[in-house]
Design goal:
60% helix; mainly alpha; single chain
Length: 109
Amino acid sequence: RMRTHAGLCIATPMGIAYAASLGGMATLTGTGPNIILHAVLQVAFPDSPELTFGTFCAMALPLSIAGTLVVWLLLCHRFVRPDGVLASAPTLEPADGGAADATGESYAG
């Protein structure tokens, strides 16, 4: 049973991490670079209108929503098969020769 949901077990935390990053990108105080941008704009362009939380959100929120949609589609493409069944997680099988196959050298123990 765990094997059939292995793809979902990988996709869920990845989706949460990407959504947190993209959501933080949409607000002025969500990430450090956004705050730095605000300060740089105030210093470099003192006569320009102030960049407020609302104006920043109006610009960045559509990008954040689009990015979230793209990430969702990529995760679905990778971890859900076209018929709606969850795909299994990729497995790594050890090589027969172990480290010797990977490095081209043999090690004596």
